[in-house]
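Schema walk-through. Below, the input block comes first and the output block second. Nothing else is stored per chain. Lengths vary across the set, and this one has 74 residues.
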Amino acid sequence: MLDTIEMLEAIGSDASLRYASTVELTNLLDQGQATTALTAAVMSGDASHLAREFGDMTNFVPQATQSFVSSDLN
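--- output ---
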């Protein structure tokens, strides 16, 4: 999984990779020995393939709010 995260980070930080065609990116991932899930996600354009690798977990929105309360109550 760490290699997948590192590859995703490299793709996101390099404009030539970020805007590469599907064929170019798939070839690059094959050379870099990317996981099957990452390669399938790139080939299909469907990020749900990565759920197999990262685990199919539900992410919840944080239930936190920030407020500013004045301590000067007159």
